Amino acid sequence: MRLLVIVVLLLSIAAFAFAQSTRRQGVRYLNPPTLSMPAGYTHVVEVNSGRTVYIAGQTALDKSGNVVGKGNFAVQTTQVFENLKLALSAAGATFDNVVKINTYVTDMSQVQTLRDIRAKYYGKNAPASTLVQIGNSRAKS
What CATH class is the domain 10-133? Predict the structure, then answer.
């Protein structure tokens, strides 16, 4: 198995909304029976009240800006989620408040590892989610 020198895992929370109480008033999670059953995410999340906070994409960097877990997808993924937890906390939120997340990975073969780790962080209701593999090749001019 080829190890990547550095697996860049970018997670960007496009938006999340706060429900004004712990009961999540104003947020509805839907998995329509006309769509497949999702694995670790919700197809539709409707937010009718609250506030919106945007968090920039996070990578596997520690507080000092050093890469954590070079070549180790699981360690890097965990660092990204820990960074997201810190960013959410700074806004007075937790993963229970996240309603939408975008995830960008360089190695889609590690998707089950990603799913297993993110499941440890998500609350009762998994957010709507987009997962995209990004390339690391340079465009030729």
Answer: alpha beta
Crossing angle (nearest 10°) for helices 111-121 and 73-90: 30
C-alpha–C-alpha distance, residues 30 and 24, integer Å: 14
Domain boundaries, the chain: 10-133
Q: Are 11 and 103 in contact (CB under 8 A)?
A: yes
The pLDDT tens digits of the residues spanning 25-48 come to 788 999 999 999 998 899 999 999
Tell me what pLDDT residue 20 has: 29
Centre a 10 Å sphere on the Cβ of residue 128 and count the other Cβ atoms it contains. 20
pTM of the model: 0.73
User: What does the alpha-carbon distance between residue 98 and residue 125 come to, in Å, rounded to a whole number?
Assistant: 9
Q: What is the 8-class DSSP label of residue 24?
A: -
Q: How far apart are alpha carbons 95 and 98 in whole angstroms?
A: 5
Q: How many CB atoms lie within 10 A of CB 125?
A: 15
CA atoms of 11 and 102, how far apart (whole Å): 6
Going by C-alpha positions, the residue among 55, 32, 61 that lies closest to residue 101 is: 55
